[in-house]
């Protein structure tokens, strides 16, 4: 598994709103004590933390989408499928006379990096953002499920939201037989050659980076597209989207354990499309030669991810039993339609008031989440954990003030705020530093908001950023069928299937129990 370019694209191609400078809102603390660490004391404060199942997530606000099956040793098996619109690359197309459709190919790029360049015009690639290395069943269907741009339930004033749990209703609208079925589909890291038609009708051979590339039935597309030349259905894309409403690219388990991979729908490197290759009469009077032609259907417009699969019965029972009253022994984090954790700092209001009266200088405040390695003995470890203001659905001051933003290497980015997986004598852990947030609560009377903890594949992509890296807002997805508090979660939580189990505030292991650790100076 390697970090992919897709997340860099996600962070920078999202809609950018007016930026409000973070340095006007937040004040960084602790500069003096770093240079003179004498008189520093440490205090451990009890916190409250519990897991919460994620039932349904909005997934039509992403640039890229997951496809495939992932098997986790604790959380069970889950499948990610894609529902997408199709658009004409050219409205009211004219194909020519006496068309013979030779082949139809769907191509959706993967994310990949060069593994080796042999110097003999042969480049070997390695796939990025792939989880697992086995096969899964892949099918493609036409559906009559129409994807609205605007939401009719609110008078067509807001964008329509599509959710991860809507696959059943899409499948109820499948039209006809599958267009493709492969019982043992496995993503390939091989490059491939495509044959594009140049201006004079000759083949131009192009070598492309790895992609999902499958052949679709020519008979279907001859009847559905070629034979419809000149009709109202192909006159414009508005008509066409009602004529061919959507495709379901469906992943299902096949008993092998599967693999799940990120598809590049951004169009930054190569466009996701369905290419129809055909021959036609030359069009020159008196000539009998045939010339080649091609026409593309673009996989653009509305699309969304669907997720199928439930948490294992044991995990679901554990999560459902956890409450905000006592916290939990273990915190269950699973991306996509999985689970998250809610963190409550200073649950004892009287203790918080007493600390405020001490007027402490907070030099550093940490939450250290130890992995419960007794329960989690295998599986893909999440790259990063992300802590955010759950009450207001926004980033914390410490995220905004971390000067270690690294667009080229997200794994090494913003590590002052959120460190990657590390290990000490007590075991594996994730450390999140919330110095400014805690200082604001203690010294400035800021609201003690609830915090949300989720898995993210890229810490950079949880916010909207401008071209210079300035933060313009959080990238959040709506939820439904959830408790009132959790109405949004970070959108990129959908772009990885990984999971972990962390020691909570009720852990029986004192050394690994979740606490808020404050390093402070008391000048009183």
Automatic annotation (TrEMBL):
Cross-referenced InterPro entries: DUF4270 (IPR025366)
Domain of life: Bacteria
Pfam families documented for this protein: DUF4270
Protein name (Swiss-Prot/TrEMBL): DUF4270 domain-containing protein
Organism: Christiangramia sabulilitoris
């Amino acid at each position: 598994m390697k970090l992919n370019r897709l997340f860099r694209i996600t962070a920078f191609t999202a809609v950018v709103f007016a930026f409000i400078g973070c340095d006007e809102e937040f004040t960084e603390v602790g500069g003096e004590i770093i240079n003179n660490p004498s008189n520093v004391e440490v205090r451990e404060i009890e916190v409250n933390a519990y897991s919460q199942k994620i039932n349904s997530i909005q997934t039509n606000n992403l640039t890229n989408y997951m496809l495939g099956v992932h098997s986790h040793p604790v959380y069970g098996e889950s499948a990610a499928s894609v529902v997408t619109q199709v658009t004409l690359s050219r409205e009211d197309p004219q194909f020519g006379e006496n068309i013979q459709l030779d082949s139809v190919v769907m191509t959706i790029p993967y994310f990949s990096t060069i593994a080796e360049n042999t110097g003999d015009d042969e480049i070997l690639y390695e796939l990025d953002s792939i989880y697992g290395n086995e096969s899964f069943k892949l099918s493609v269907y036409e559906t009559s499920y129409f994807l609205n741009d605007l939401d009719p339930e609110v008078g067509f004033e807001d964008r329509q939201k599509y959710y991860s749990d809507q696959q059943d209703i899409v499948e109820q609208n499948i039209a006809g037989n599958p267009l493709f079925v492969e019982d043992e589909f496995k993503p390939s890291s091989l490059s491939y050659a495509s044959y594009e038609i140049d201006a004079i009708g000759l083949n131009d051979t192009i070598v492309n980076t790895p992609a999902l590339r499958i052949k679709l039935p020519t008979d279907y597309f001859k009847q559905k597209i070629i034979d419809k030349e000149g009709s109202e259905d192909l006159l414009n894309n508005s008509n066409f989207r009602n004529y061919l409403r959507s495709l379901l690219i469906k992943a299902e388990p096949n008993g092998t354990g599967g693999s799940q991979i990120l598809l590049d729908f951004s169009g930054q490197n190569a466009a996701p499309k369905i290419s129809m290759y055909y021959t036609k009469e030359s069009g020159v009077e008196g000539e009998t030669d045939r010339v080649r032609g091609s026409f593309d259907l673009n996989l653009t417009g509305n699309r969304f991810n669907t997720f199928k699969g439930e948490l294992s019965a044991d995990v679901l029972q554990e999560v459902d039993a956890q409450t905000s009253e006592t916290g939990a022994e273990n915190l269950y984090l699973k991306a996509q339609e999985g689970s998250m954790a809610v963190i409550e700092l200073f649950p004892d209001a009287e203790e918080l008031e007493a600390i405020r009266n001490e007027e402490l200088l907070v030099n550093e405040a940490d939450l250290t989440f130890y992995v419960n390695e007794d329960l989690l003995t295998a599986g893909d470890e999440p790259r990063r954990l992300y802590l955010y203001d759950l009450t207001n659905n926004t980033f914390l001051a410490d995220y905004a003030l971390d000067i270690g933003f690294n667009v080229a290497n997200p794994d090494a980015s913003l590590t002052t705020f959120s460190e990657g997986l590390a290990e000490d004598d007590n075991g594996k852990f994730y450390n999140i530093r919330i110095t400014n947030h805690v200082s604001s609560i203690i010294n400035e009377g800021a609201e003690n908001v609830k915090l949300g903890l989720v898995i993210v594949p890229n810490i950079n992509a949880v916010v909207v950023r401008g071209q210079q890296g300035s933060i313009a807002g959080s990238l959040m997805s709506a939820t439904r069928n959830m408790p009132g508090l959790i109405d949004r979660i970070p959108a990129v939580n959908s772009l990885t299937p990984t999971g972990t189990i962390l020691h909570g505030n009720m852990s029986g292991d004192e050394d690994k129990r979740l606490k808020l650790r404050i390093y402070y100076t008391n000048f009183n």
